[in-house]
Structure formats: structure tokens, C-alpha cells
Write a structure and sequence with these properties.
The chain is built from four helices and no strands. With 93 residues, it is mostly helical.
Length: 93
């Protein structure tokens, strides 16, 4: 289900990369896939998906007139990435 959504969103962004709502939608879909990966105990995959989601919203959050939502999303993804990084580091020891 999410794979088809990701393909569509990426195709739309290829057509018009300036559509901020499409970047936001892509980030949300990636975040949902990260949740699934984490619950399946695939932490490296979850981490990769969260980093990709962050890469979609960080440029939006950095804009001078950025919506609070994008800043909040970027902060959320950073927090989740740090949490998973710590979990992976602990698992290695």
C-alpha cells in the first residue's frame, strides 16, 4: 500500500518539485513506513526512512516563512532519528 503511494508522490514531485504539500505528503508516508519497519524490529530500515522523511521537510522548515507544522515535523523526525540511533548503538554493545 505505501510503496504505491511513495511511487506516486515521487512521480508528482519529479513533475513539480516546488509543491511543498507534496514534499510534506511524501514525508508523512515515509514516516508511516518507518513506524511499520520499527514495529517489525527492522531498526536500520526505520532509521533510513526517518532520515529520508527529514530530508523532505527540513528544506521546508528552513524557509523564512515556514509553517510551524514543518518545523514541528522536522523536530519530530530529528528526535525519532536520535532515539533509533541510540537503540542501534545499544544493540551493538
Amino acid at each position: 500500500m505505501y510503496e504505491e503511494s511513495l511511487k506516486l508522490r515521487r512521480r508528482l514531485l519529479a513533475r513539480d518539485p516546488e509543491r511543498t504539500e507534496w514534499h510534506d505528503d511524501l514525508a508523512v508516508t515515509l514516516g508511516r513506513k518507518a513506524i511499520i519497519a520499527e514495529t517489525s524490529e527492522d531498526l536500520p530500515r526505520a532509521l533510513a526512512l526517518l532520515r529520508e522523511a527529514l530530508s523532505e521537510v527540513e528544506p521546508l522548515a528552513a524557509r523564512p516563512a515556514a509553517a510551524v507544522r514543518w518545523k514541528d515535523c522536522a523536530a519530530f523526525y530529528r528526535k525519532q532519528i536520535a532515539r533509533l540511533d541510540a537503540a542501534l548503538a545499544a544493540a551493538r554493545h
